[in-house]
Amino acid sequence: MTAVTMWQKIQLFYQSALENGDKRTDKWLLVYSPVPIMCVFLCYLIIIWVGPKLMAKRQPVNLKPVLIVYNFAMVCLSAYMFCEFTASSWLAGYSLLCQPVDYSDSPLAIRMAKVCWWFYFSKVIELSDTIFFILRKKDGQLTFLHVYHHATMIFNWWAGVKYVAGGQSFLIGLINSFVHIIMYLYYGMAALGPGMTKYLWWKRYLTSLQLLQFFTVTIHTSYNLISDCNFPDSMNAVVLAYSLSLIALFCNFYYHSYLNRKAKKT
Asked: Is 115 a member of any domain?
């Protein structure tokens, strides 16, 4: 009886979580239920586990044309999202300090919700980065940081689009889209071949830019947790914990990739 009651409570909680989302985004792809994105996540984990084993006795796949198209397409998508986040927030008079979600069907509110969805969907597309590493036998790139960041972002932004498509969420999308313009431009140039190496001296500063975005999000979210802002504290708490975890992981990556390596050379 207790087990049945517990199962019923779980069902009621799950149904409530589905029904209490943003009604505007419920019908959009991969939004209403977490089940589809969980299936994507499970497929992602299976590929990470099986992929390197299947490639072990095979030659790396030449993906140069694919990588060039993919990376520069992601530059364009990131630029589009950056412009949409900027224009939508500016025209709607968004505050950088406290911005509740506008759940209305006004053109600007829908425009912001749509670019939030595109940002969420771009995180699904970015799982391709991992597949490309596997096919090229770049298994050293499949670090905990890489897998953790890619896998968790799809869930974070599923929740973002499901419950808070707009408001304070816009700043994360705005900053990250800008960083990804630079990041995928770097990868696109690198994919062009060894002739571009002399122009890619700024990789270290790209990592610094990524760290700067996490510090900015941490400060911004911390302020919203202690201020009287009509934005869910639960969302702010999740974002704060997540950004702190990324700061720790990226600082560790920066130290081992640049500072520790430089010290060993010296």
From this structure: yes
Please report whether residue 24 resides in a domain: no
Residues noted as catalytic: 149
Count of Cβ atoms closer than 10 Å to residue 208 Cβ? 12
Question: Each residue of 227-244: pLDDT tens digit?
Answer: 888 999 999 999 999 999
User: What is the C-alpha separation between 171 and 86, in angstroms, rounded?
Assistant: 9
Place of tokens 């707009």: 166
Is the four-CA dihedral 57, 63, 66, 69 of positive or negative sign?
Answer: positive
Indicate the angle between helix axes 128-135 and 64-91, nearest 10 degrees.
170
Nearest CA-CA partner of 206 in 187, 183, 181, 188: 183
DSSP state of 141: G
Identify the band that residue 1 occupies on the pLDDT scale cut at 50, 70 and 90: very low
Query: How many independent structural domains does the chain possess?
Result: 1
In angstroms, the CA 65 to CA 243 distance is: 34
Under a CB-based contact definition with an 8 Å cutoff, are residues 110 and 24 in contact?
Answer: yes
Residues in the chain, overall count: 266
Residue 30 counted as domain residue: no
Q: Give the DSSP letter of residue 227.
A: S
- 181's tokens: 């313009």
Q: How far is CA 247 from CA 120, 182, 238, 252, in A?
A: 21, 19, 14, 8
Write the single-letter amino acid at 16. S
Q: Phi, psi (5° rounding) for residue 103?
A: -90, 10
Which residues span the domain enclosing 84?
Answer: 61-265
pLDDT at 197: 87
Amino acid present at 104: S
Q: Is residue 118 part of a domain?
A: yes
Give, in order, the Cα–Cα distances in Å from 161 to each of 24, 75, 110, 117, 138: 10, 22, 12, 6, 33
